[in-house]
Amino acid sequence: RNMSSAGPEGRKKMRECDGLIDSLVYYIQGAIADHEPNDKATENCVCILHNLSYQLEIELPESYAQSIYMQRRNISSNDKTPGCFGTRSRKVKEKQQDTPLPEEKSNPRGVESLWHSTLIRIYLSLIAKSTRNYTQEASLGALQNLTAGTGPMPFAVARTVVQKANGLPSIRTMLHVSHPTVKKTAVSLLRNLSRNTSLQSDIAREVLPDLVSILPESVPESDIVCETTASICYTLFNLTQSSSHNARLLLSADGLPKIITISMNDSNMFSKASRAASVLLYSLWSHTDLHSAYKK
């Protein structure tokens, strides 16, 4: 666990170590099957996988990168069942069709396991079943790492979390835990997920009221709460920017008074949250059909 946080070279060596990742996944699967998601060894395994998933897309070996980004030929653009990586990048215009990519392997080995749907479901299971804060945080953090980039892998993982594995209810529960770091990581994961336009309606329906409910009533009093508040505002920005319906949902959840209060703070220490709230307010005002509702 300590070695896995030793930097890029350490991560590279550990990812390349034959059988290491497979053994960690195997152990966690066994712990879940035996209804023991809270033991220390499981926590250690998940923390290692969390660290090994950091900057994974950037640090992948060239052979993997080529296979992930390689376009498959002779596939209908209307194919409704793309593989694990069948999803568009944020940089690709919405009107363009999804680039078809290789289907995920049924029996992944080594580094391939790190983004496989099997491990994604394991993380979601641990989030739901473990009561250890470090295990919860590491599981959320691994998913946050895997959804952090702008290429096909992060968006494929996001789609698996939201639509294929129904992970939003478990993540939503983590928004209401008392542990501030777990809550912060859950919000950061939702911020990543909310960048995917095809998932925004699902995310808004499932967690937008919860995000509003955990916004502070006044200016945040600590750095970690400030960072969490900023992430909430940027997540709400993503969800409402192109959707008047979601903006109205935010309004009906009584989010506007909170956002206005946070935006008016002048303290340099908490400017990150205030700036994010101001950006959100500016975006909300762009929905001209809601101006009368805002004024009321």
From TrEMBL:
It is found in: Cell junction. Coiled coil: none annotated. GO terms for cellular component: adherens junction; cytoplasm; intercalated disc; nucleus; plasma membrane. GO terms for biological process: cell-cell adhesion; desmosome organization; heart development; intermediate filament bundle assembly; protein localization to plasma membrane. SUPFAM superfamilies: ARM repeat. InterPro entries: ARM-like, ARM-type_fold, Armadillo, Plakophilin/d_Catenin. Its main location: other. Residues 79-109 are annotated as: Disordered. Keywords: Cell adhesion, Cell junction, Repeat. Residues 94-107 have a biased composition (Basic and acidic residues). Belongs to the beta-catenin family. This is PKP2 protein.
